[in-house]
Amino acid sequence: MLALGCSRFRTAKDGDEVVTTSKKTKAHNEDQTSVEDEQELKVAKLWSRVDELEEEVFRQKERMRLLEKGLLTGIAPDGLGAASAPKAKKESQAPQLLVEEDSTAELAPPKTENPNDMNLEEQDQYTKQLEAARGLYTSARFGKAIAAYEKILTSYAGKVDGGFIKYWIGCSWRQLKEYTTAEEILNELIEKHASSPWIPRAHYELAKVYIDANNLSSAREKLKFIKNKYQYEDVSELATRELEELPNKL
What global pTM score does this model have? Predict the structure, then answer.
């Protein structure tokens, strides 16, 4: 009887160990499955984010293409309507994309002021003259670029945005290091074309004129003005960058 009791005790004990081991194994497998599921979820989220970024890059490239087209034609492309433009606050003006000064991707030129006054032939000639003037500017033939823009301004007075044309004339004079003339042209743009969407850019170009002329106090004042006045526009970021680099120019 003693032997039989011992045998039953061992059997019961071994059974408990088997049950305990089975529970541990099951719990381990469940934990491992949970970790794998969590990792798969993270990977899925990462791929989803990659897809979103690729789509955003595509949209930005398309917007840049439309802006470049608008720059050459002088007429804002239809693809840059209010639906695709970023929301602005308070004093923000027309949607803009501002990059470094010598890039061809600038703020899209505004539509003609009186499009009904220009027939199809005039519009075609206007576009060709703009392309030619822009080509002269990008090839660093600034004197000829000024003459070309002046001719456009005279030929289409009252039919196109004079602020747009004068902006590039001012830029050309700055590139020729004629800072006084450049300052006069840009100030005239600001005073006489107050409704032009090129006003923020004209202020920034004036700051660049002051920097190039080593008038750093005026440059600092103008950059601070831009940063505060147009804080919701891209030109404010350019002004902030110039302010940060200004001490290095002393």
Answer: 0.57
